[in-house]
Amino acid sequence: MPRPKTQTDESVLDAALMLMQTSGPDGLTFASLASATGLSAATLVQRFGNKTVLKSAALHQAWDRLDEATATTAERLPQTPGAAIDLLIALSGDYGDIETYAEGLLLLREDLRDPALRQRGTAWKTALTGHLDACFTNTPDTPPNIGELLATHWQGALLWWSFDPQHPVEAYLRDSLTAYLALLIRT
């Protein structure tokens, strides 16, 4: 009979993701994860097989959480243009400071290298832009793809903020998204 797990796969994958966020994807090893979780490296190899499978599982779990955060945040906000901005700012909460944002780009690199993770990104884009589009259903004279336009500007604004992070990311994004939205829905 197999021994009971002292830590769930979910908690182990959380630790793996944390290691990748702080040390980059190459910083994730079975030895470093063993140290972080208190499990033996052999136990971790037995559970996940190899580093590629481990990394992929951790990144899929991160996508699961982003999907959930997007859906639950969108559900609790009203469907208004201001709420579209609030949704994007809420989804930016994990970026924090410039170091956290920069490490997140290393994780994005891993997503872009893996076809299954790229598909997760595509699916998230569809869900996010759908939520954003819904915020403009009662706003006349909006472009039909306003959700995608707003999400694209959001990602660009994050990048521009990262070059000169003098202001908190939330304040920078609110100002940038508000100005952009005023251009899009101006009549």
Automatic annotation (TrEMBL):
Species this chain originates from: Paracoccus caeni
Residues within the DNA-binding region(s): 29-48
Highest taxon of the lineage: Bacteria
SUPFAM superfamilies: Homeodomain-like
Protein's UniProt name: TetR/AcrR family transcriptional regulator
GO molecular-function terms, A-Z: DNA-binding transcription factor activity; transcription cis-regulatory region binding
Key words, A-Z: DNA-binding, Transcription, Transcription regulation
Residue span, HTH tetR-type domain: 6-66
Keyword DNA-binding attached: yes
PROSITE patterns named in the record: HTH_TETR_2
Entry annotated with the keyword Hydrolase: no
